[in-house]
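Appendix B. Worked example

We walk through a single record from start to finish. Start with the input: the chain for Redoxin family protein, Mucilaginibacter aquatilis, length 519.
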Amino acid sequence: MTFFVSMTYNCTNVQYIKHSLKPMRPIITILLSLHILTAYSQNAPISIADAEFNAQFFKTPKPIVSGKIINASKKDLAELKITYSLVNPFLSVQTNGIASINKDGSFKFNLEYPFPYQELWINLGDYFYSGVYVNKGTNLELDLAQLKKHSVEFNGKGVKYKGRDGEFNLWRNDLRLYKRKQQSAIYDELYKLQMHQPDYIVKLDSLHNLLKSIYSEYITKNPSPLSTLSENDRLCDYYSSLLKYMQITKKELPVWKQIKNHKALMISNSASMFNYNLFNYANYKAQTQNEAIDKILGIYYADMLKLKAGNRGVIANEQEFGELTSTVHTHWVKEVLRKQHYNALRKLDEVKAALNSGDVIAGDLVVGQPVAQYTFGAKLSSVSKTKATQFLAKLHNKFKGKAMIIDMWATWCGPCIADLPYSSKLHNEAANLPVEFVYLCTSSGSSIEKWKNKITELKQSGTHIFIDQPLTNELLSLFGKSGFPSYVCIDTDGKVSTTILIERMQSVSLNDIKKLIIN
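Next comes the structure step. The output line below is what the pipeline stores for this chain.
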């Protein structure tokens, strides 16, 4: 279906046509639409799965995110913190960071790659939270005086979206707020759907049709030449669910042909999940049909999806990395994989240097501030204002000669909580081995009381450390992780294992743990 979403003009033009030139409105509308369609076709978004993106990647400068906090005192600026999560097309979906705020309230940082419409979730303390899309350059103006009166999610008083991406970011965040309660209710129902239900597909279609009608209504009232991006992103969500359903049930749906031709136009959470599920399903098809993924999806699409293989330990293993890159034909994908490989090796070296650092004195073996100790074998402490390298050095010195299984989790993370009993079982099985189970809980979205309550509720033995957000971000970056739960295995020689890679604790055996003990 063709929908002229590119028929756009600003609000003042609409009012002018309505009230002043009513007899000429059809002609003017057509002329405006043709003009905008021409402009849109010249700058139509290109997917990173398209062959054309190869040339665009090498000639496009890295986009910049900048902004300014106005009406803020020196004290405010000293205490404020801008945190962000950038969505990537890699297996590690998000990169977390903190933007430095200058004395005049300004901030600026470059993105590592020139990907189109890269989703960035940005947070200013308790005052502002939003998702922006970085393409040519994003700028934000945040009025702290207004935000102190009423905090803002997505858009509101005290927030201005500026820069070359400003118009689309304003439009996109207003879409998030349009019929917000109805959208939230639909997403809640989508979350509750179970794939084993006989009417799963019927309900999924029904809910997405409701969401589509809200999007269409908003687009009709607020035309934009880039509105196709939002519908494309919604389809990523929808197709992602169908891909998971097909893989679990082993039933191929007639819509498969449409799915494999769908290409995400943004680097968003929805797009990343779609690409992940497409990569998995295409690999499943390749195995069952004895056919290369390149043939199923085409070389350029398959090459882009191979970025999803890059963080499964492959990226840090010379042999496996070589095998992966030998199957890649697209230059920009090879370039990104090479950079990922270099960064992974550099971070492994940093972790190794920190773990084997000799600058920790014997009396400084307590990791953090002691909080509590329980009879079921749990020792609790908290750490703040500490660099990741210093923290790892202390950790290694405290448990010298032992292997470590580090579990990074959050009190609000469902999969984290679900995995803890399996970890506890493994801990008991490995009681006579030189292995320490270290649980690092982020302070983000939690508190020490909630953390203590969860540990006592689960009776989770081991070393528990409550770490602040800057340390959480640093450790995730060093380990090449992006969310929770995240697991890191360190052998008795103080090296991060690139062979024992844990995604979920329930899949780990005692034999896996024994491989971390180097005789």
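Two observations about the output. DSSP finds 20 helices and 15 strands in the chain. The first strand starts at residue 64 and ends at 70.
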